[in-house]
Amino acid sequence: MKSSKQPRLLYADEEGSIFDHPELRLLCRKGEHVLPPGPKDMIPLPEGSDIFLLPRRNALGMNPENGEFEYLEANPVAAFVSPGHTMTGAAAYLTEPDAGPLPLFAYAAVGYAQGTFWVCASRTDSDPRQQFGNISDQAIERGARSLLKQHPQNRLLQHLAHCALEYCCPAAKNLALGRFEAPLPTARACNANCVGCISWQSDDSRIPPTQERIRFRPTPEEITGIMHTHARSEARPIFSFGQGCEGEPLTEAETIRNAIAQYRDQGGRGTININTNASLPETMAPLARAGLSSIRVSLNSVREELYTPYFRPAGYAFRDVVATIRGAKEQGLFVSLNYLYFPGVNDSEEEFQALADLVEDTRLDFIQLRNLNLDPELYFRIIPAPRTPAMGLANFRKRLRKQFPWIEFGYFNPYHTG
Q1: pTM, two decimal places
Q2: Which terminus of the chain, N or C, has less C-beta within 10 A?
Q3: Which CATH number goes with the domain that contains 323?
């Protein structure tokens, strides 16, 4: 923020009313460290963000007179920042004994100063594809109903209409509106058991999934029917397999290959992308020959000791992920990382060096700086603590760009012609 005055701590009562503390200042969490946010860490809270109160936790702030930390017996407040923004500092608080894990969101530190909410985040993509502020729910429903009328027997479209209208999925809403990127969920199963999976959690997990996983395998014709319809509405269409409502799309590589080949053979245009855990290197060549444009590889870390306890792979290892990235580049595909960012972890010196080695080795193209949606305390129970200090998101990006000038940063899958 422009002023040197630190934002005040926010807290909430049980009814959800939010208050700013008259004395205590905002703190944030970076890795396992709690500290005041720096001026480069904060921006005014963007439109479309949500503010949460965190139950069974106590707000934590700093006394500006002596620099000591003090807690309140009141709910802390955190922000889920609107898409296109990456968190620079997580909310700081004290958790009560036996408190359950928080739902699957990112919890950015947020405070109040000069009549404005300030959040620890940075804008990393100006693409408006997940902004719906000026679009009514009725318009989205009309679009979904129109698509269902055009394709009354298409099960995949029925599934996505449900996602748009019941789960308010941004990707499914864009499909209903005929704009930007169209989701194409295909896989019922997964070969990983990610701690932060939003569509499946084990019976003993205390984290509820936020949406339902697809229960059938779409046919290539169901997939291409959606693709052709979307391409008639969007001048620069992007199609993405691998959505939050499915497992790992590469486990359905043959179905996807057939759909892509059919679409391309019928003159289909646009960027065809797969969001993937990159577990099956042997799938890259046949998918590329069929007409795949790009892959986006999800990683919480490029170090195996952090990757494995979060993704919990079944039947593959981190070396397969690297081999898939190499294979995709050898096939001429555009490769992005879906780099699940947590302040103090991904911008640590050791992580930076490992990421630089991967970029140098594979010559990947693009890094999407998305937030890791997970309870911070749960995350630090499953991964080793950072051993080196954090450099901050701004310095992280600056150093990577200087070392690898071709690398682009963003938040969404970019459109490209290959």
Answers
A1: 0.95
A2: C
A3: 3.20.20.70
